[in-house]
Each structure stands twice: as C-alpha cells, then as structure tokens.
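Input record (Table S2, row 472):
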Amino acid sequence: MDDTFDLPLEADLADRREPAALRKKLFIKSYGCQMNAYDAQRMSDLLVDFDETQLLTEADLVILNTCHIREKAAEKIFSELGKVRAAKRARRANGRDMKIVVAGCVAQAEGEEILRRQSAVDIVVGPQNYHRLPELLRRSDESRIVDTDFAIEDKFDHLAKPAPGKTRERGVCAFVTVQEGCDKFCTFCVVPYTRGAEFSRPVAKILAEVEDLAKEGVKEISLLGQNVNAYHGEGPDGRPWSLARLCARLAEVPGIVRLRYTTSHPNDMDEALIAAHRDLPALMPYLHLPVQAGSDKVLAAMNRKHGRDAYLDIIARLRAARPDIALSSDFIVGFPGESEADFEATLDLVRRIGFASAFSFKYSPRPGTPGAEMPDQVEEKVKRARLAQLQALLEEQRQAFNNSMIGKTFSVLFEKKGRHPDQIAGRSPYLQSVQVTAPDGLIGAVLPVEIVAAGSNSLFGRLCAAEAGTGA
Ligand code: 5AD
Ligand code: SF4
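Output record (5'-deoxyadenosine complex):
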C-alpha cells in the first residue's frame, strides 16, 4: 500500500470550516467493479467533514466498499478487516478512535453476519443506502448499525456534488452511474440479490452530472450500469430514452469528447445502439460484451436467455457498423454440467471472434443462487486446467491485437504523467495504455499518436508532427 496521502489544494479548503490539521481523515478502499469505485467517490463527496487519506493508521473513519461476486472477493474482506481492526486497536491505545464501515455488496449480502464475525465493525451499509452515511455515523456512537433494507427514496437525490477541485484531482476520465440493478437472474450471479431490481436514472439528472464534470475539465465519460444497455430512463419528453439516445445527447455536451459504457448484456444490444457505434464519433470503438460461455447447453443452464449464434450475430452486426470495433468479454469456466465438449465450444467461440481483452474466472458457487444447488459441479482441478487453457488463448489474442497497432495512428486522451519523467500516459480508443514522450501540459488533450512499439501492457507512440510542434 502507498503510504502517502495527497494534501488538499488551497482552493479545496477555502470554503470549509475547519483548518486542515483539525479536519478528520477518511480511508476508503473499493473492491470489485467500476460501479463500486464510483460509489466510493460519492461516499467521499458526502462526507464533507473528512479529507481522504491513503494512510490507514491516521484514519478516523475507514470504509471498505466490498465486492461479493465470487467467494474469493468476499472472503478477502474478512482478512482485510483483521488488519483494520489491528489499526483501530493501535489508535485506541493512543486515545484516538476509528470508526469502521463495511459498505457494498458483501454488506448487502451478509448484513448482521459481519458484525458477528468482526467485532470492530461499527456500521454495515448496503449499496442502496450509503447516502445515509452521515446520519448513520452520528447514530453509531450509541450502537452498531446494519442498514441493508432497499431504500424507498432515490439515493441519487441525496448525494453531494464533489467539493471544489476534487473532480480535477480525479482526472479527465469520469464514471457516471446511469442504471443500477439487474432483473436477468443469471443462475451464477449474486447481483440481482445485492443490487436489487433494475433502475434507470432520469436523463436530466445524468445530463446535469455530466455537464458539471465537463465544466471541471472531464473529457471522457464511462456510463455505468450492471445492465447498462437495458437503460430506459425518463427523458425530458416524459418518455423512456434508450442508451443510444442518451449517448447521442451526452455527445453534445461541450467538452465531452469520448463516451464508453459498461457492462452490457447481449440481449439488450438493440439496433439503435449498434447504429450509434457507426454514427457517434464520441462513442469509442470498444465494447465489453460478456458472453460467459460458448456452448448453448451451458448458456441455457446459466439462464443467459440467448444462444451462441445470437452472440456471433450481434458481433457480426457490430463489426459491419463499426469495422474497427474492439471486443472484450467475461467468461466463466467450470459452470455445473460443463463437459469437455462444452468447454471446447467456448474456445471455438473465442477463436472465431478474436478478443482485444477479456476477464475469465473459475465458476464460484454463490450461496442463494440457483447454480450453487445444481448437480454436476465441476471438480476444482478441471476448472483450474480449463481456466489456464482459456487464459492462454485470450492472452495470445490480446498480444496479437496490441501488436497489430504498430504503425497505426489514432487519437489518445492523455490522462496523467507517464512511467518516465519526460513521458505522459493516456488511453487509445480501444482502452490500451499509451506512453508518449511529451510535456505534462498536454494532459487532458486528445491528440493523434503513431504507435511505434507494443509492450506486454502498454503501447509506445509518438505525437504526430503537427501536434508535437504546436503543443496544442
Ligand atoms: N463465479 C465466477 N464468476 C462469476 N461472475 C459473476 N458471478 C460469478 C460466479 N459465481 C463473473 C461473470 C461476470 C463478471 C462480472 O464476474 O463473468 O460477467
Ligand atoms: Fe449478473 Fe449480469 Fe446476469 Fe445480471 S445480467 S444476473 S448482473 S451476470
């Protein structure tokens, strides 16, 4: 862990009541998906009496924003809590306190059990209730609290705007949650239980958030949702808007030059969204579209509600609309009943499509999901061998994709300083990290870069001559 913490900017402190030294410190750590990272920022924004620290031992308040998607992720929280408890004890020995909050999906799923297993925890709060944190903190002086009921009010109406300067500190790329929850009930997945039913935020609220971010220098927005392409929020005309229409509107916001969205379900890839990849230059030619498996039998057992041909057809239509689109996916190996032939069908699908990147996992039976109760659970050593084989293929494809970039020129949004002092780093349209020798003043700019080399995790490029000369 990095033992430094960022001092707040002067401007950031100007409108606050306490001098910096007297203000309380928040250590917040997020696990799992990008929506958790977004939620952690919103929690930090809500807690206006606290400044963030990267140093656990000086924290007055510790929040672990947890992930429940696989067993490993959930169990990790309890080992992390052991470390936090030791820090709390050390502080108490010095006459100072530390409140400990467990938020996120483990909080939602385990509730009281967390208080039972870890006596140092003060508050357990689910992902739909974290807007109540300031009040929960006040109440927690009297007793330990679990707040995991699905809130009736819309939490987004109760969130705070970032303090002045905070958005700039967070950089030129921002996440915005537009949709939450899931009604699909894939048989392996805890999300419908931890995040609840599908909900789309109204267009006007998303637009206002994006406009605020753009005014603070944000250039790229990633729209987030567990089923983001099922988005159907209320538009200004009182009717539901699709994700395609939302993207078209957000692309008009001055300053926003790049849009992405994640995570999608194949069944919600409608014609309008496919067409948006052809028609909207701001919509990046990169799509994370999880397929999970390549065999019809396994897809049916997973309750994915589509077969392999439907997925191949969507990919073909996307490529027809946007020939340079790069694809990414999630895969699960060793789902109950998966035979060697089923697994081969997954490898075959991967070979047919060719992915630019991917995440792949061994099936992890999650309590309360139908998959956990299914017969024919696959042996651990079989899962391990299949995962290794799949990952080797996906890695080969990723490297081939990166190598195919050499000699090409495309736009890079520069986000931060690079690995070496004279370098800056940004992302390609296909989400690859790109390192370029250029001055820091270009951070925030989108400029054409010619790729000259590909490493295992980054591309290396040079600014195209005109831009390098003008410094624009
Ligand atoms: N076991 C393994 N992987 C899972 N995922 C979701 N639930 C499980 C599980 N029980 C994976 C899926 C999903 C990604 C976010 O996590 O591939 O798309
Ligand atoms: Fe989970 Fe995604 Fe399936 Fe919903 S669509 S149940 S979030 S894997």
